[in-house]
Amino acid sequence: MSRRLSRLAGALALSCAALLAIPATAAAEPAPADPLAQAIAALQGQGGASLAAANAIADSRTPVAEDASADPFAALDAANKALTDFGITPFFYPTAAINCAATPGAPLGIVPGVAGGAAGPWPQLKAPVPLPIPDLNAVDKGETMFAFVPAGIVNDSADKSGMQVAWFNVNTLQGGFADFGGLATTLAQSILDNSGIPAELKELARPLVVNALNALPAAGARAVPVDTGSGTVLAAVFGTVNHKALDGSDKSCFFFPTVGLVDVA
User: Fold this and answer.
1) What is the DSSP letter of 122?
2) d(Cα 107, Cα 99) in Å, to the nearest integer?
3) Which of 156, 167, 163 is nearest to 239 (CA)?
4) Looking at 89-173, which runs of residues are DSSP E strands?
5) What is the pLDDT of residues 166-217, one digit of tens each?
6) In whole angstroms, what is the distance from residue 172 CA to residue 68 CA?
7) Mean pLDDT across the stretch 110-131?
8) Contact 181, 224 (CB under 8 A)
């Protein structure tokens, strides 16, 4: 293994997290306030899901050895592009699972992954032909759709449980945890539920939704809509993905936390 790949593997294995880092300032200048730290201090003694989620995000903010955005895995670049093309902003850094690869040749069996978020209204799908339906959205204003894509999972399990997001709104001091579900199932149902169209017209809209979702990779991809409220929302995504190895055995892979930020209108 090359020295660079060795360093990369170490960085992904030991960190694999987004760095909400504050740029260094001159000694004479006061450091900018950390809104997450301020929120945690304000919530001390109250307990509950908001404080737990804020602490989970804070614990995920670990330094990394080198910028993981320079990751050499082409599958990771493809996963990032799939998210951005669909209007989902990737988190600050990718993540990875060790001893997880379904294909040979990956150092330490690493499977990289990428998470991201999109503020509502999203994805604002429009019918290609005139239909008496409004724009179709999976999340509305004040809500956030979180997504996760493990790159290189080729035989995903039917069990989509295991991945979760910890989120915290630094403006409202509200937060919590949410479990991911399968991408197509979650997005399609959320879009149709939020459409407000009569039940008899939903089946006309379903092909439009399904075709749009085909732009995202299917294997391993997950999504979850969250009522985050409007404001600056910090989030950490982590957990397990189950899939089949080349020998047919079941693998359960833990992905280290990755952290991101979404500005929700």
Assistant:
1) B
2) 9
3) 163
4) 89-90, 95-97, 111-119, 144-150, 163-169
5) 999 999 999 999 999 877 778 777 877 877 777 777 777 777 776 666 555 5
6) 31
7) 82
8) yes
